[in-house]
Write a structure and sequence with these properties.
2 domains, ATP hydrolysis activity, single chain, Replication Protein E1, Chain: A, 307 residues, nucleotide-binding, 11 helices, four-stranded antiparallel beta sheet, ATP binding, six-stranded mixed beta sheet, Rossmann fold
């Protein structure tokens, strides 16, 4: 099956400033992809490249088997909701649906009307008078009714309160199940990503640090705790991502390709970690790189390709 997104050495620079550097990705179809990283990591740049809003400086990118925004047909396959879920303040909810029908050849009017009713939007209400959660639901409805193959969201829930955020994510999962669409969701909120995402891309310092299916990644990342000095020389196949030491104890987050970490390091306690711990370990490692030195992405290929 053709990957939804495939890139090789994808690079975007603004003058001398790198926004994205040598990103090599292959994202399978049917996933909800969590895109995470600190401000300035390159998340919005990657999404803008994916949607065809900007062009790369170097490298290649294909979305659904073609160059992004290469044709009207290609544009119809992708729906992009930028930060702050932009809608037209002076237009009513019904106006937005009519506009969506005029602009999108595969517009699903029945789906749009049903979702507007389900989330309690008043068709006569001006978008500028909607709450943040209601605007997010309207933007999601417009994107989904386009009937795309790929839905892209750039920080769609950052400004929402917890209840509105939960409602938005629930609606998103319902759309994924109904439309069999792939989603790329950029967010700082790791708990939300853990709830809905099954594929992960971690960016830091303009480079891909980690990518793969969430369960596969969690299976090979562990926390190892041992007496100070006992973990200084780990066997081959165990890579240290983050290390914290006290005078008595060492705590490591490692990637274990052996599958038998507890047997190889019997003196240590080995624990499973969650998505947040794993992501923070990679972001911490990237942040500790000497200023001005290149940040080398650890996993710039899908996990399957590393085995």
């Amino acid at each position: 099956m053709t990957p939804v997104l495939r890139s090789d050495g994808l690079t975007k620079r603004y003058g001398r400033r790198p926004a994205l550097t040598e990103a090599t990705l292959s994202i399978p179809a049917g996933r909800i992809v969590g895109l995470v990283g600190p401000n300035g990591a390159g998340k919005s740049t990657l999404l803008n490249l994916t949607s065809g809003i900007i062009a790369p400086t170097a490298g290649t990118i294909e979305v659904l088997g073609a160059r992004p925004a290469a044709s009207a047909t290609q544009l119809a396959k992708v729906a992009f909701v930028a930060q702050d879920t932009p809608v037209y303040a002076g237009l009513s909810v019904a106006d937005h649906l009519r506009l969506g029908a005029r602009l999108n050849p595969k517009w699903d009017a029945a789906l749009a009307r049903r979702r507007v009713e389900q989330v309690g939007l008043d068709p006569a209400q001006k978008a500028g008078r909607l709450s943040g959660g209601q605007r997010a639901q309207l933007a999601l409805t417009l994107a989904a009714a386009k009937r795309p193959q790929l839905l892209i969201f750039d920080e769609p829930v950052a400004a929402l309160d917890p209840l509105a955020r939960r409602a938005f994510l629930q609606s998103l999962m319902e759309f994924v199940a109904e439309l069999e669409v792939t989603v790329i969701l950029s967010s700082h909120l790791l708990a939300d990503l853990e709830r809905v995402c099954d594929h992960l891309v971690v960016l830091a310092g303009s480079r891909v640090q980690l990518v793969g299916d969430v369960e596969d990644l969690l299976d090979v990342h562990k926390r190892v705790i041992g007496a100070r000095g006992e973990l200084d020389a780990l066997p081959p196949g165990i890579e240290v991502i983050q290390a914290d030491h006290t005078t008595r104890q060492s705590t490591l987050v490692v990637r274990d390709t052996t599958g038998v970490l507890a047997q190889l390091v019997p003196a240590a306690d080995v624990e499973r970690i969650d998505l947040e711990d794993m992501v923070l370990a990679y972001l911490t490692r990237a942040a500790r790189v000497t200023a001005g030195a290149p940040i080398r992405g650890y996993a710039e290929q899908p996990l399957e390709a590393q085995r």
